[in-house]
Target: Response regulator receiver domain-containing protein
Amino acid sequence: MAVPVSSLALVLCDDHAAYRTYLAQLLRRAGLAIVGQASDVVGLRAWLARHAAVPDLVLMDVQMPGGGPAGLAALLRDHPGLRVLALSAHDDPAIVAAMLAAGAGGYLLKDDPLQELVDAIRGVAAGQCRVSQALPPAQQ
Model:
């Protein structure tokens, strides 16, 4: 069953403030609720500690302070129910595989179309694995 986009609460985690702001605006226009933002995994951990409710999904940059597969794996050890969709400019098969192995529910590229991102958010929030259609088939 598809999760209605309007019922999803998201946290954005990216070290580029301008990109976070722009992405938040786009996702709000698409009907999503942006309930928090962080510039790195330390900030995300602090946000999670301050809020009783776990967001439906975290959109997380791959290359930022405390990020990457090791940062994601550590975060998910402390917050096992957290669903994470990795966003990156990198289409390196090793990075994609490492993020998925670390527990990401999906991997999208930052230049994927907005509708693909919204669909991936809905899918990952529902427990599906979503990978960018722009990646070679072996990575999908």
Observations:
- The helical segments are 17-29, 41-50, 68-78, 93-102, 114-125.
- The longest helix spans residues 17-29.
